[in-house]
Predict the structure of Ribose 5-phosphate isomerase B.
Amino acid sequence: MTQTIALAADHAGFALKALLADELRAAGHDVLDLGTHGEASVDYPDYGFAVAQAVAGGRAAHGIAVCGSGIGIAIAANRVPGARAALCTSGLMARMARTHNDANILVLGSRIIGVEVARDCVHEFLNTAFEGGRHAGRVAKLDGATLKEAAE
């Protein structure tokens, strides 16, 4: 299924983001490249916010954010209401982020994982649906629902 994927990275994640963007385009996805566009030092929060705002605002179905460790850009992305960014280091983590947490942004650490693991994470993330059921109320709480609202 073709979808729009927002991508953003800081300087440490630039090369991995560029590779993933090319592969996503080759697979038929529309890529919303939010930068950075080179290896000059930039601030990861700017790019975490950008990808999260694109996803939470409906400009993209999912997002992928990359920095050196993945930690900082994940923290930034999760500050945006409606964004559920999950830092993943394996395909299993990416699949669980979708099935149980309805994560809408995959976060990768370019200095932590290799290209093949990154590809596996992207594949699992984009090809796994949210399971719903008992997880729906929990995800609603992530978005600010009360216990009573989540049960309804």
